[in-house]
Amino acid sequence: MADKTPTTRPTSSNVAEFLKKAAQVQVRAPDGKNGRLIFAMDATASRGPTWAQAMGIQTEMFQEAASVGGLDVQLAYYRGMMDFGASPWLGNAERMITLMRGVSVMAGNTQIERLLRHAAEEAKRGKVNAMVFIGDAVEESADQIAAAAGQLALRGVPVFIFHEGGMEPAGAVFRQIAQITKGAYCSFDASSAQQLRDLLKAVAIFAAGGRKALENYSKKAGGVVLKLTQQVSKP
After folding, report:
1. Cα–Cα distance between 175 and 6 in angstroms, integer?
2. How many CB atoms lie within 10 A of CB 106?
3. Taking a C-beta distance cutoff of 8 angstroms, is the pair 221, 205 a contact?
4. What is the C-alpha separation between 71 and 206, in angstroms, rounded?
5. For every one of its 235 residues, what pLDDT tens digit does the chain have, with 9 covering 90 and above?
6. Beta-sheet pairing, 71-79 with 83-86
7. Are 78 and 84 in contact (CB under 8 A)?
8. N or C: which end of the chain has fewer CB within 10 A?
9. Which pairing describes strands 71-79 and 35-42: parallel, antiparallel, or unpaired?
10. DSSP assignment of 128-191, as one string?
């Protein structure tokens, strides 16, 4: 399913909706153990032009999460001809950053259905509180992806999607994944790198420390995060 039609740049309203939904997700495990987050990346060649920038932003995300504590992360990615990888669950941000930086882009098709089914299998073995996915395209059957998202929803795993470029028809598929899993969708482009950076940090901090940690971060970050966190925090 190729991406041809551009969509609009992300607005404060869809970012507000993203954080509003994120705040409604209960990411803490009931037994007090660390929250667990799958961080998934499309590493196909179409992301090559922005890959270095994305690495920098995602590095900051893990560093912020580590400063709060309480979050274990699994890195998952796809690229090439059916090349798919997933790390062990790690609570050490530096180890995660090293693994992430070891991934390079490679030409190939998307494997979103496989990614969703992997997350569902992980959730069978132990509680997975959320999944973040960063990608730009969809080249698979929308119906098969929706079915895989449904299996993930049954396991209670919301998917928070950051859509690079915001192109259609991929955007429609990504929004459907977010809707089915009770997650959220937000598009971004090269001009919104700072916004993406702030949102990734906010989601990581929320997953690690809950709403209070997000509120504390927003006071330091200011700008769009502060404004939107104030909306999230309203009763």
Report:
1. 15
2. 14
3. no
4. 10
5. 444 333 344 444 555 555 455 445 444 444 557 778 888 988 888 887 777 777 777 777 667 666 666 678 888 988 888 889 888 888 777 787 788 778 878 888 999 999 999 999 999 999 888 888 988 899 999 999 999 999 999 998 888 888 887 889 999 999 999 889 887 788 876 666 667 777 777 777 766 666 677 777 777 776 656 654 554 444 4
6. antiparallel
7. yes
8. C
9. parallel
10. --EEEEEE----S-HHHHHHHHHHHHHTT--EEEEEES--BTHHHHHHHHHHHHT-EEEEE-GG
Domain boundaries, the chain: 12-232
Q: What six digits make up the tokens of 46?
A: 């179409």
What fold does the segment set 12-232 form as a domain? Answer: Rossmann fold (3.40.50)
Say how far apart CA 235 and CA 232 lie, in whole Å: 8
Q: Are β-strands 130-135 and 159-164 bridged in parallel, bridged antiparallel, or unpaired?
A: parallel
Whether this model's pTM surpasses 0.85: no
Q: What's the length of the chain?
A: 235
Do residues 41 and 77 lie in contact, with contact meaning Cβ atoms separated by under 8 Å?
A: yes
Radius of gyration of the chain (CA): 16
d(CA 34, CA 206): 12
- 82's CB contacts (< 8 A; 6+ apart) are 108, 111
Sequence-distant (≥ 6) Cβ neighbours of residue 91 within 8 angstroms: 34, 71, 72, 73
The encoded tokens of residue 103 equal 């991934």
Distance CA(13)–CA(8), nearest Å, equals 12
Cis geometry, peptide bond prior to residue 10 (ω within 30 degrees of 0): no
